[in-house]
Amino acid sequence: MQTKKIALITGASRGLGRALATALSARGWRLILTARGEEAIREAAVGLDAVVLAGDVADPWHRARLAAIAADEGGLDLLVNNASGLGAAPLPRLADYPLRVLTDLFATNVVAPVALAQDALPSLRERGGAVLNITSDAAVEAYEGWGGYGATKAALEQVSHVLAAEEPRVAVWWVDPGEMRTEMLAEAVGVEALEAPEPDGVAARLAELVERRPASGRYQASELEVAT
């Protein structure tokens, strides 16, 4: 009989998603991990109590397979919408932003998290579960070149806020992790990303957030408590 809590983490093959998978596994969670690269997601799951499925969260067929895996596991206690696209790079001004790229970016960063939440909500309600959406300061600040990405994160924040209001039995957190040394940041800003901290510290704070289960709302990782 399955007694462990179960989490689905998207974008789990690298960066924050991979670090959070490691942190939750250390706390006894069973994981469903997904990312686009087959080899990378299998490597990320080594040593973890996890089932993996490579694919694109923007693909409805892939989401349906994830929902089937979650059902086979008995349901979800936590959905982590971490998978995210950067969009056009080098970062263009909005006047020059390719609209097809922007459409695809909303599909990955907004529509997919909503769709995954829709699939997960029945079991999350039943189990008193939670949704953790990874956002960004670009959702609330006007950084030149970050208009496309920031717009998707602003939309994700509003989606999260409304979901929290509509689902009182489910905790909904949207968290700005701050700058981290990730491939996405390197793609956006280049070598400056090397000065950012590794994502492990943020992952530890997020794992503690999940365990403490505070009220639904927006949080900054830098302000979260760290387990001692």
Automatic annotation (TrEMBL):
Q: Does the keyword ATP-binding apply?
A: no
This entry carries the following GO cellular component terms, namely: membrane
PROSITE patterns according to UniProt: ADH_SHORT
State the SUPFAM superfamilies in the record: NAD(P)-binding Rossmann-fold domains (SSF51735)
Q: Which keywords does UniProt give here?
A: Oxidoreductase
Top-level division of the source organism's lineage: Bacteria
Write one Gene Ontology MF term: oxidoreductase activity
Transmembrane feature ranges: none
Q: Which PANTHER family match?
A: DEHYDROGENASE/REDUCTASE SDR FAMILY MEMBER 7B, DEHYDROGENASE_REDUCTASE SDR FAMILY MEMBER 7B
Q: Which family does it belong to?
A: Belongs to the short-chain dehydrogenases/reductases (SDR) family.
What protein does this entry describe? Oxidoreductase
Q: Taxonomic lineage per UniProt? A: Bacteria, Bacillati, Actinomycetota, Actinomycetes, Micromonosporales
